[in-house]
Design goal:
Blueprint: E1 3-4, H1 19-22, H2 69-80, E2 89-91, H3 92-110, H4 119-132, H5 134-140, H6 146-153, H7 161-172, E3 178-185, E4 188-198, H8 207-210, H9 214-233, H10 238-257, E5 274-276, H11 280-283, H12 289-295, E6 303-306, H13 309-321, H14 324-339, H15 345-358, H16 368-379, H17 381-392, H18 395-418, H19 424-436, E7 438-442, H20 460-476, E8 498-500, E9 505-509, H21 524-541, H22 562-580, E10 583-585, E11 588-589, H23 596-616, H24 630-639, E12 644-646, H25 648-657, H26 663-671, H27 675-680
Parallel strand pairs: 4-6, 7-9
Antiparallel strand pairs: 1-8, 2-12, 3-4, 5-6, 8-9, 10-11
The chain binds zinc ion (ZN).
Length: 700
């Protein structure tokens, strides 16, 4: 589990990796429609375009900062940046990622087959070229998945399903019934054990199957149509396709009902059920677990963490009660549906129509090149990242951002020591945890070696299968081995950051340390407001309602006194209550039990950034600029990371699945609790961005 700063949700089913890796494919962005944006012909890739980290033109000064600070800081940006037709939302983060894609595209085209290349460029160049060859995919139709469809058709009994499920999971991942892989032992973070978790659904979350409001019912109706379409495209009669769609929805609904909710999954104890692998057969007897692990060729092991036992019980019962033909129908759908983005145009289009257009509101498919750059980043990210980092991440940039990280960590230490509600005992433990945090900046010290992945410039579907196999094998082989603390979960070009509680590390890829987020050309005020806040946010995750349950070593172990924990929970309740009042879209409120960790991190992060900024500039005289005082510039710099426009469909999906609050509340919700803000803008106590002092939430 990891907590990201800017969690972008996958918008099509085109991803077949673990949930963590899904995050690297932020299906974002595009200003220019296909054909209007030819790749540069020059030998050198273009530099990333420059936008300052504080842009006065992005503001809307007709709005009072103390009335709606987000609108004041971002209103101009919102007006100037309508959502492009191929996007489900548009934001400062999204635009930067779009710039990255254009930049990476040029590098990939320079690495095309037939040019002179080293072994790294060869891999990414061939992968990208294969992806761009749409005519080859058109000719092949469904053939890439045909052997798997044949194997499903060849099943003679449910008993035979175990080895087939294992094999299919290698390619199609958790969409086949459940997810599997390695994980750090929650009680001993240096140890890698096997893990099993819920999965197997086609819609984004269990709630979609179970909620009874009109919108949820409409989505299920539309899902039935989508499933039937996929069957029809795969060659079934309309009548059979419709009937089979009902079967798929019925099976998935039973699976969904046995799944933990997103909120339940935020409790790490609810996900911890370590047992002997031999005991799996007592819980889910209708899969042959010995055969299962043999088929996946796991290193020998004894302990498995069964994250969701109730799910496996229900799935096992269903395996026995559903006829074989229905399971064949279920598997057939998931194979074709999850592989659709890599098949011929009819499949690609239907996947887009449902997952990205209907569910999330995109108007147009992204141009092919854009999807291909993102697939390359997802599947060969540390090969692509090497080339990227060499161009955009200098040693000076690494040094200056690392300096900022250290200052924010010092601020956190200072803050912990001065907390008025925490006992010295717990403070000591918190400081130990803080000292144990590892900082990872820019890119990994050791690059992942993809030399064993066979990439063929004329076989895109095959490349996807082999890249998936490589990743799953790599993951499985960790079982029983020591933890590699140098490993990253996202690629260097990713515009995001994360904290991992079991690693107890904070991770900032090169992609998130570029203007307008971190701007080496501008002064400290907006940089601390923006990137300083992001660093503080990730640090605070180690101490939010969830992260605070892990100790300095990353083990799930209580280090709090009972009294301090009760006080802490009363303080996070203040945050939860504040955010519960905000509306996401229509009548949908923020599920503030889901967003609590992120909201606490947003609060803590900005306070730390402010303290660190004051420390970093205490001997300097800071002049006003653009009509703003230094303090005002700190806060506008903060708000402008979050400037965004979002489609209502996208907001609706995120309300269920995204642990982050919508952009507007990630700003306005924070400043209302910072007296430093109301001082900076001389707000009156009656104004919306000001809370009375006794109501201000203060956690860290
Ligand atoms: Zn976060």
């Amino acid at each position: 589990m990891t907590w990201h700063y800017f969690f972008r949700l996958q918008s099509s089913k085109g991803n077949m990796r673990s949930p963590v890796l899904v995050l690297t494919v932020s299906l974002l962005v595009a200003v220019l429609a296909r054909g209007q944006n030819p790749a540069p012909a020059a030998a050198e890739p273009p530099a990333l375009p420059y936008t300052p980290s504080l842009d006065p033109h992005a503001m809307d000064t007709s709005v009072e900062p103390c009335v709606d600070f987000y609108q004041y800081s971002c209103g101009g940006w919102q007006k100037a940046n309508p959502i492009p037709a191929d996007q489900t939302s548009w934001s400062v983060y999204g635009k930067l990622y779009e710039d990255n894609l254009v930049f990476l595209r040029a590098m990939l085209e320079q690495a095309a087959p037939g040019t002179e290349r080293d072994s790294v460029s060869q891999k990414i160049g061939d992968f990208y070229a294969a992806c761009m060859d749409e005519s080859a995919m058109e000719k092949r139709g469904l053939s890439a998945v045909q052997p798997d469809l044949d194997a499903i058709a060849g099943l003679r009994s449910v008993k035979e399903i175990t080895p087939l499920v294992a094999r299919l999971q290698f390619t199609y991942g958790e969409t086949i019934l459940f997810s599997q892989g390695s994980a750090q032992d929650p009680d001993d973070s240096e140890r890698q054990i096997a893990e099993l978790d819920q999965g197997g659904l086609g819609l984004p979350d269990r709630d979609y199957y179970l909620e009874q409001d009109a919108k949820s019912k409409e989505i299920r109706e539309r899902y039935l149509e989508h499933v039937a379409k996929v069957f029809a495209l795969a060659g079934e009669s309309q009548e059979a396709a419709k009937k089979n769609a009902q079967t798929v929805l019925r099976i998935e609904t039973v699976l969904a009902a046995a799944q933990l909710t997103q909120v339940e999954r935020r409790d790490p104890y609810k996900l911890k059920h370590k047992l002997q692998v031999a005991d799996l057969s007592g819980i889910a007897p209708n899969l042959d677990w010995r055969v299962y692990y043999q088929e996946l060729d796991y290193p020998s092991f004894e302990i498995v963490n069964l994250a969701t036992p109730d799910y496996f019980r229900a799935m096992s019962r269903l395996l026995a009660s559903e006829p074989l033909a229905n399971w064949q129908t279920y598997l057939r759908f998931h194979v074709v549906d999850s592989f659709s983005p890599y098949l011929s145009a009819a499949f690609v289009d239907e996947s887009f129509e449902f997952y990205r257009k209907y569910l999330r509101g995109a108007k147009e498919q992204q141009p092919r090149w854009k999807r291909c750059v993102q697939y390359t980043d997802r599947d060969l990210g540390e090969a692509l990242g090497q080339v990227y980092v060499a161009k955009v991440f200098s040693p000076e940039l690494k040094a200056s951002t690392l300096d900022m990280v250290r200052r924010i960590e010092d601020a956190m230490g200072e803050r912990i020591r001065s907390l008025d509600w925490m006992s010295p005992e717990t403070k000591q433990q918190a400081l130990t945890k803080l000292a144990g945090i590892r900082n990872k900046i820019g890119y990994p010290d050791k690059w992942r070696d993809y030399s064993s992945v066979r990439i063929v410039s004329t076989d895109f579907a095959g490349d996807i299968v082999r890249a998936n196999e490589f990743e799953r094998r790599r993951d499985i082989n960790k079982v029983g081995k020591p933890v590699d603390h140098g490993e990253w979960e996202i690629s260097p070009p990713t515009v995001d950051a994360y904290y991992d509680p079991q690693m107890n590390d904070i991770n900032f890829p090169a992609g998130v340390l570029q203007p307008p987020l971190y701007d080496a050309k501008l002064d400290d005020a907006p940089n601390y407001g923006d990137t300083g806040g992001t660093i503080g946010h990730e640090l605070t995750h180690g101490f939010d309602d969830e992260g605070s349950q892990f100790d300095a070593k990353g083990n799930l172990k209580n280090w709090w006194t009972k009294e301090d924990r009760a006080k802490f929970e009363a303080r996070t309740q203040c945050v939860e209550d504040q955010y519960a009042q905000y509306v996401v879209v229509d009548d949908v409120h923020i599920n503030s039990k889901l967003t609590l960790g992120e909201d606490v991190a947003d609060f803590g992060g900005e306070i730390l950034a402010y303290i660190a900024w004051q420390g970093a500039t205490k001997d300097k005289t800071l002049p006003p600029r653009d009509g703003l005082t230094p303090e005002q510039r700190f806060f506008v710099g903060f708000a402008q990371w979050a400037c965004a426009n979002e489609r209502p469909e996208e907001l609706r999906v995120r309300a269920v699945t995204d642990p982050h609050s919508p952009a507007k509340y990630r700003i306005n919700g924070v400043v209302r609790n910072m007296p430093e803000f109301s001082q900076a803008f001389s707000c009156k106590s009656s104004q919306p961005m000001v809370k009375s002092p006794e109501k201000v939430c203060k956690v860290w």
